[in-house]
From TrEMBL:
Gene Ontology MF: a single term: structural constituent of ribosome
Quaternary structure and interacting proteins, as annotated: Part of the ribosomal stalk of the 50S ribosomal subunit. The N-terminus interacts with L11 and the large rRNA to form the base of the stalk. The C-terminus forms an elongated spine to which L12 dimers bind in a sequential fashion forming a multimeric L10(L12)X complex.
A Pfam family per the record: Ribosomal_L10
Source organism (scientific name): Comamonas thiooxydans
Gene Ontology cellular component list: large ribosomal subunit
Name the UniProt record assigns to this protein: Large ribosomal subunit protein uL10
Family note: Belongs to the universal ribosomal protein uL10 family.
Function: Forms part of the ribosomal stalk, playing a central role in the interaction of the ribosome with GTP-bound translation factors.
Source taxon at top rank: Bacteria
Ribosomal protein is among the record's keywords: yes
GO BP annotation list: translation
Keyword Transit peptide: no
Cited HAMAP family: Ribosomal_uL10
NCBIfam families for this protein: PRK00099.1-1
Length: 174
């Protein structure tokens, strides 16, 4: 179904606002995917904060013109699904994970930080741990010296406590 001019402008405005907030764009070809699989992919994406859209490529090119995602405008051909995410790795992770289980979804490329990504670049981006995992790892690294110090101090206190208990029993016996 074709869109009238005002509908096209609304789509362009919506995608432009998505692109303005997003850090990452992933483009994948969805030819041959069943409706049930596409619904599953969209639900998974929505739960992870990724906006997936099937757009007319000319509208997508106009929407990303002048943005950091303009570098992939030449790749916008064929039946594509566009995944935008504010989290740097979320869109790549959602699409790459789904592509592992469904060979009909073919990653075409993407963009991150104003640079175009090829298929391998998207897969590498997908393998980076999420922000929450990285923060947890950082907290673990910061807590490690503190917990080691606490263990050593606890052992010293226990040893000192044993020594003073022995001295108290010797004094009491004398």
């Amino acid at each position: 179904m074709s869109l009238n001019r005002s509908e096209k402008e609304a789509v362009i405005n919506e995608v432009t606002s998505l692109a303005a907030k997003a850090q990452t764009l992933v483009i994948a070809e969805y030819r041959g995917i069943t409706v049930a699989d596409m619904t599953k992919l969209r639900a998974d994406a929505r739960s992870k904060g990724v906006s997936l859209s099937v757009l007319k490529n000319t509208l997508a090119r106009r929407a990303v013109a002048g943005s950091a995602f303009d570098v992939v405008a030449d790749q916008m051909t064929g039946p594509l699904i566009y995944g935008f995410s504010e989290d740097a790795v979320a869109a790549a992770k959602v699409v790459a994970d789904f592509a592992k289980t469904n060979d009909k979804l073919v990653i075409r490329g993407g963009a991150f930080g104003g640079k175009a990504l090829d298929i391998d670049g998207v897969k590498q981006l997908a393998n980076i741990p999420s922000k929450e995992v990285l923060l947890a790892q950082l907290c673990g690294l910061l807590m490690s010296p503190i917990s080691r110090t606490a263990v050593v101090l606890g052992a010293l206190a226990a040893k000192k406590g044993e020594g003073s208990a022995e001295a108290a029993t010797e004094t009491a016996a004398a």
